Amino acid sequence: MHQKRLEGKVALVAGGTRGAGRGIAIALGGEGAKVYVTGRSSNGTFSEMERKETIEGTAALVNQAGGVGISVRTDHTDQEQVRSLVQKISEENDGKLDILINDVWGGDHLMQWGNKFWEQDLQKALRMFNNCLQSHLITAYYASPLLVKNGSGLLVEITDGIDYRYRGDLAYSLTKSSVINLAVCLSEELKSSGVAALALTPGFLRSEAMLDYFGVTEENWKDGAKKDEHFIASETPAFVGKAVACLASDPNILQKTGKAWSSWKLSDEYGFTDSDGTRPHWGNYFKEKFGEDLN
């Protein structure tokens, strides 16, 4: 029988509707955690992303995995909604929160690839920054006191990349690299309380939206490499989910605080595999193709 490493733990996955957030919520549930799944896409009420996935759907998958999934519709750019969410978690769990995952993004429809930043719609760039970085800061602000109160815990900032390099677009690069810096700053504020804070990136994520973009399903996903050869090195949301489950179960997690980590590097360390039993390694693939070291 699989020993559930996170039995009795309480987690909040902010932005758990789909993609990495959904994969993380399921993985935490699979280890026995009680997982609050939040986002704006709820049954009958959807965000401007206009995707079919919902927080209720993720919560159901958490339950199926063996955890307890609780969906709470929350716009994490709204301070009052976040405050109410954290109060609910506190009241329902005697002030306990062990794991906070900041995965809110909401920027895909705001991307403006191919244009110089001064040629872009500035309001879209600012909204991207607000949807991601500001929402993460608001959520950390209200939830961190619960982590501190317990004297231990884990705060994970989900981003893209492990460094501050340019990612092909100014607004996107600034947003994602700022999330890494947020994790670094949070670690300095929280480590004296026994709480670890770090940034985590997946590789080429084979999310629901990416599968749709490539016109494939999880069953025939490799056909997507005909459209983009790099898709062959992609990973499912379950891979980064397992990375978080391992981090949350690590008794020496404070040794990792204040740094940016990757799903593939953590797979090297912890030995977990993707849902199909493989171990995708975006770092090795990227180095082979482009000669740049992401490890």
From TrEMBL:
This is SDR family NAD(P)-dependent oxidoreductase. Pfam families: adh_short.
